[in-house]
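Exercise: predict the fold of this chain.
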Amino acid sequence: MAQLIDYYGTGRRKTSVARVHLRPGTGKVKVNGKEYNSLVEYFINNAVWAQHAFQPIVSAQLEGKFDLVIRVQGGGLSGQAGAVRLGIARALLEYDETLRPILKKDGLLTRDPREVERKKVGFRKSRKKMQFSKR
C-alpha cells in the first residue's frame, strides 16, 4: 500500500480551532467532511474570509498543488477563517521549512491573541455601564 503524504497544521483564532491537512493534489477543498469547489462556498460566499484563509498558499505561490482537508469547529466564520489561515501556514512549514521567511514577512505565522473580554458583574457588557440616573 502506498504511503499517504500528509502535512498537518493546527490553527486557532478567537474560540475557533482548525486542523488542516495538506495532501499533494489538484486543489480540492474538503471542510468538515464535505467537498467544496473552493473555500468561498464554505464561508457562505464571503470572498474576503476565503481570501484571508487562503492567503498562505497564495503567498507561497502553491495554488493548485495541494488538496485541503480541514476540520474546523467553534466560533463564527470570521474566527474560523483566521484559524484555517494559521493552520495552512503551519502545514506549509511542515512541507517546506524554507517558506518561513516568506510567511513570516506577511505575518502568517503569528497567532492573533485577541479574545472576547468577559462580562463583569454590575455592567451591561464587559465595560458598558448601566445608564446613570441623577434623580
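Check your answer against the key: The beta strands are 7-13, 16-24, 29-31, 34-36, 66-73.
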